[in-house]
Amino acid sequence: MTARPDADIQPVLRAALTLVAADGLKGLSLRPLADQLGSTVSALSHRYGLKDELVAAVIDAAREADTAFLNGWLSRVRALQPLTGSLLADLADAILDDMTSPRHAARTLFFFELVQGAPTRPEIVASLSAWRDRRLAFWRAAAETIGPPELGDALNGYSADEAAHGLAIGDVAAYRWLRRLTLRRLCDGLVAAPGATDLRAFVMLHAALGEMMTGPDGYEPQPLTDWQARIARDISALIITQSADAVTHRAIAARAGVASSTLAYHFPRQEDLLMAGLEDIIARLHGRVYRDPDKIDLIEEDLSSVEIARATFAVALAATRTPRLRACAADMRRRRGENYLFILNRQIPGESPLDLLSSQALSIAGIGQIVLDGVTAGGDIDRSAIEALLAAALAAR
Questions:
Q1: Which of 132, 210, 319, 329 has an alpha carbon within 20 to 30 A of 169's alpha carbon?
Q2: What is the pLDDT of residue 194?
Q3: pLDDT tens profile 246-271
Q4: Whole-number pLDDT of residue 115
Q5: Count of CB atoms within 10 A of residue 214's CB?
Q6: Which residues of the chain have pLDDT under 50?
Q7: Given this model, what pLDDT does residue 2 score?
Q8: What is the 3-state secondary structure (H, E, C) of the chain?
């Protein structure tokens, strides 16, 4: 059945946001919702419809609230016309701050959890795609007076990856400054202006953010037995290809070909499974990031660019609930462009005009685009905006 016309979805939306913020998409089911609302499953179903209909209604309500939020910002952007690239960058920075502020963070996290979980939840794709497309329309409208035309698409991808990290580490001053510098380079030209000092500031803040890894709240990998480490590879693969929400004892036992009882002995809780998978992702990404760039061989990589995008996105979302992962999220965020710059320079004939700040901006936008395009199963990754910005930068040298 569908929701009754007089059904007020707002209480359900608030309950859903609370549950997802605490426990991911697995909390978004009828029983937890009914408990959160002080109701029963039968009463909830009678008033709002069956589970898929109810979830679609919740997503639609969240999209409407997000649309009102974005429309408010679009009116401010238009009131400040004519824009410069630097002003658009500062506005984008303020919008990302607002998206991840206490007032809007739960809705922003809900959107990203849906994006991450879409590969295993085909029933949410239609409603989520409408929300995703609305965000793209906003960024296109915000950037429409600043060329090139692909900038709005790039900002949409950038905002997806960046806001997910902002939810986890937005209170870190070095992170906020890095974001500001990267946005200015994205909006005001990828090639540094003569005499520009932004790269010097970026390098200094880049190092400062890395200090989180060795500070008092730094990251220490948890020891695993050889058997656990082998299973962790299966767990990380499931997180990357589907979502953290897909990690259950039954799913991992079937994937790894082990008895459920044996798996439960080594990983008693679902949280133990999830953390082992995240640990494996972190170790594999660090093994890629920290190696000498000239040793990168894309043909031999065990993680594709799509898998890397989904993996780092999963770590960022996990860090919103697991404080000890915050340093990892910060470190992965700051190292976005390092190996990518080497790859770009290897592909560009002659002297490259790009630097670490340029590659950081392109990398963040590209990763966000990959994650957003993954909402539609089997959909191609649209790299046209990144390729157009890169082509314009090379043409200007």
A1: 132
A2: 85
A3: 889 999 999 999 999 999 999 999 88
A4: 95
A5: 9
A6: 1, 5, 289-291, 298-301
A7: 53
A8: CCCCCCCCCHHHHHHHHHHHHHHHHHHCCHHHHHHHHCCCHHHHHHHHCCHHHHHHHHHHHHHHHHHHHHHHHHHHHHHCCCCCHHHHHHHHHHHHHHHCCCCCHHHHHHHHHHHHHHHHCHHHHHHHHHHHHHHHHHHHHHCCCCCCCCHHHHHHHHHHHHHHHHHHHCCCHHHHHHHHHHHHHHHHCCCCCCCCCHHHHHHHHHHHHHHHHCCCCCCCCCCCCHHHHHHHHHHHHHHHHCCHHHCCHHHHHHHHCCCHHHHHHHCCCHHHHHHHHHHHHHHHHHHHHCCCHHHCCHHHCCCCHHHHHHHHHHHHHHHCCCHHHHHHHHHHHHCCCHHHHHHHHHHCCCCCCCCHHHHHHHHHHHHHHHHHHCCCCCCCCCCHHHHHHHHHHHHCC
Residue bearing tokens 């295993």: 120
Q: What is the pLDDT of residue 286?
A: 67
Q: What is the pLDDT of residues 287-332, one digit of tens each?
A: 554 445 555 554 444 557 788 888 889 889 989 988 888 988 888 8
- State the Cα–Cα distance between residues 264 and 77, nearest whole angstrom: 53
How many Å from the N-terminal Cα to the C-terminal Cα in the chain? 61
CA 32/CA 385 separation, integer angstroms: 41
Q: Are 337 and 360 in contact (CB under 8 A)?
A: yes
pTM listed for this prediction: 0.89
Contact 26, 245 (CB under 8 A): yes
What is the structure's pLDDT at 24? 87
CA–CA–CA angle 302, 307, 310 (5° rounding): 150
- For residue 297, the SS3 value is coil
| Sequence spans of domains, the chain | 80-397
> If you search the block for the tokens 């860090």, which residue do you land on?
319
| Pick from 343, 349, 361, 363: nearest CA to 189 | 361
Q: Which two tokens stand for residue 124?
A: 């949410």
Report d(CA 98, CA 305) in Å as an integer.
Answer: 29
